[in-house]
Design brief:
By secondary structure, the protein is an alpha+beta fold. 51% of the residues lie in helices and 23% in strands. It contains 7 helices and 11 strands. The strands form 3 sheets. A 4-stranded antiparallel sheet has the order 1-8-3-6. A hairpin with a 2-residue loop joins strand 4 and strand 5.
Length: 231
């Protein structure tokens, strides 16, 4: 029994040792690092939420919202690399600040962490491809609907409906629109009974109906484009 208890407590004690040695707490609004800064550490988010932003032609654009379990700032571990974005805490929380040697050791000794990192990189690549596809759409409603359909694919599990948690800021990051525009489009979709907001979760009661709307928006955009060409 003592041996079993010792084994069960081992993962927790290992996590506690990492947090006590490399843990860094932060408060909401705190800047963890800025774009262009030199950096020798990557960060593994243990608790809280962090937003990555980047300046494009003098305007700050959200890249992504990070949650517990996400690794960020890892590009700074490359020799001579500078921070490619700014990390701002959305909430209070804790992250692990890991230098290159520590991160390498952690990945070698903990296959679960290594597998999680690979899954995260694959997810980021997929999200980047989705963002490129969405950015190519000209209509704001089409952008939001397309993003909601892609999120639904991850949560519907083959069903006719989907439910997931996504904040206006996260959705605005995905579609490249400001938060107020995203809120307006979601409000229009709610009025059309395409989506519902229940207990801080967004529900799509009829995925086929939302897909039909997306197709109609595409036809509408094509007609608008043809009309512009004739002018």
């Amino acid at each position: 029994t003592d041996a079993t208890a010792s084994e069960e407590s081992a993962p927790s004690s290992g996590a506690d040792r990492l947090r006590s040695r490399f843990g860094r707490s932060f408060e909401a609004g705190e800047v963890l690092y800025r774009e262009g800064d030199e950096g020798a550490q990557a960060f593994l988010l243990e608790d809280g939420r962090v937003r990555l932003i980047k300046r494009v032609r003098g305007v700050e654009r959200s890249l992504m919202v990070l949650k517990a379990g996400d690794l960020f700032g890892e590009s700074a571990l490359l020799p001579g690399a500078l921070r490619s974005s700014t990390a701002i805490a959305l909430t209070s929380g804790v992250c692990l600040a890991l230098d290159h040697i520590t991160l390498q050791s952690l990945l070698e000794r903990n296959p679960a962490v290594a597998a999680r990192l690979v899954r995260q990189l694959v997810r980021r690549l997929r999200d980047a491809e989705d963002q490129i596809e969405i950015m190519m759409l000209s209509d704001t409603q089409s952008k939001v609907v397309s993003s909601l359909l892609k999120l639904a694919q991850e949560h519907a599990h083959g069903g006719a409906a989907a439910s997931f948690s996504v904040s206006p800021m996260e959705l605005s990051t995905r579609v490249g629109l400001d938060v107020e525009t995203v809120k307006r489009v979601v409000r229009e979709l709610r009025e059309g009974n395409y989506v519902r907001v229940v207990d801080e979760r967004l529900e799509i009661p009829d995925l086929d109906a939302l897909r039909r709307l997306f197709s109609l928006l595409g036809v509408k955009d094509e007609i608008r484009g043809e009309s512009d060409d004739l002018r």
